[in-house]
Design brief:
The complex is a heterodimer of chains A (about 110) and B (about 400). Chain A is of the alpha+beta class and about 110 residues long. Chain A contains four helices and three strands; from the N terminus they run αβααββα. A three-stranded antiparallel sheet of chain A has the order 1-3-2. Chain B has about 400 residues and is an alpha+beta fold. Chain B is built from 15 helices and 17 strands. In chain B, strands 9, 11, 12, 14, 15 and 16 form a six-stranded mixed sheet that branches. In chain B, strands 1-8-7-6 form a four-stranded mixed sheet, with helices on one face. In chain B, helix 1 (about 5-10) packs across helix 2 (about 15-40), helix 5 (about 75-80) packs across helix 8 and helix 12 packs across helix 13. The chains are: A alpha+beta (about 110), B alpha+beta (about 400).
Amino acid sequence: MNTSAMDPQQLKGHLDLLLLATLEDSPRYGGQIIADVQAATDGFFNLREGTLYPSLHRLEKAGWIVGEFQQLPRGGSPVKVYTLTESGRTELRAQRERYERFASAVRGVIGGQG
Amino acid sequence: MTETDRFLKRATRGLWGQKKRDVQTELRAGVEDKIYRHRLNGLGEAEAERAALRDLGSPATIARSFNYVHTGPQLARMTLLLGLTGLVGLQAVAQMQTIQTAYKPSDIKDVCRVATPAELRIAPPAVKQPYLQLIANYGGAQAFLQRCRSGEVPIAGGPLLKVADVLSALKAGGIQVGDQTNFNSASMTMPLIVFTGINHDTPGPVYQTTDIHGERYIGTGDLIAFLTFATTLPLQLSGVRNPVLQIGQAKLQLGTARTPVLSTNVVTQIILRGLGGLNLPRPAEMVYGMDGGSLQPSAPHLSVPGQDGELFAVIQNFERLKGHGSEWLMVRARTGGTVPIAFQTVTPAPRLVTTLKELDAATARKENAVMVYRLDAADLRHVTLAQIPASQLHLTPR
């Protein structure tokens, strides 16, 4: 059975964290990021993939990631590959901590496993 | 043009120049990537393309998101609002049907709010100062909110017109447009009741109507589009504030004292919708500066040939050079021999040019430039533009 899709508002608050975390280990382009986010969240985030691209631009504007066009060996249009910057790494740490604090506060209220 | 091409065009609407090209390339790679993955799953080429585009979602939503990112929502709204203050004048007494107006609740919600301290901190002084001044002009934040919510503050796109008033005015003037309130007597001119909400993706004449407090409303651009298809009569617009639209014997006065309609904004809607047989280059990619606001006293004007009350279309690159998107289109009525060309001071003083080509060349040199068309909108079916030679324009700083 499918888990019910997440409220878009709820998603909005965590999307940046998800995208930054996806780029933590290595640079990736839009298509890969979308596939990664979906695989990692097992379809829990019911999102229209196209709006991930504007989100990436927003992160780029904030200076957390930088994009560069590259040609893939398989040909086709050049893809924009995003890399996490130093300030992006700092932001990722901060957002992660914030999320952990939030999650443990919620756990404190609702109980269950930590 | 392939389905993907059309999708990319829609998804990047509102973006401009290199930014637009880059986003299109990025999205195209994204589409190809999805097609590739769907083909691996056994779909045929055309099927895979359709599935890929479906995965990406609505191109209009993508475009809106990109525009948010690249202009900044609240900043864009603040900038927009600056041109939109207006003192409400007295309504002319006229022997005709007044078409009542209203703003969409969602527009009211978007615009009728006061910037937070955090938003003000990131706003550049050029936006922040006039914005604070504007709020003060309305008598402070609370008064601004109250007047804005009651429809007194002009909002981009202009107020919507009450469909019931339009239909009764047409009927009184003997104009047959079919029974727009009855589904069963459907004809091609009955979209006033069929198409509620937005559907920009459907080809052909599309009208958007909106229900506000149980009454149906339509935008001025949509109304003109509707009338263009529903009748063959000339659509004559006269007057500047709450203008009269005459169709045969039917006379519709658009707008009310509290929430007025300006002829300049009506014509802008026609230009934006690509109606009136207009061939204005790049209309979809221009930002339009709405008329009806009080300008900064130092905002530059151009003296233009002709009579007061005649309409002109100003195209300028000032905001584009500041990184705020694309060229601005400002439709204005000549007043005291001049038309304004910006809402605020422009430095250095702009170069006056005659053609769009010259304007583009100035933009490439990062030089402020402005050009002016004379607008002939006597019949809204055939709006025409004529370039005014730069030699006939004169900058008149006030």
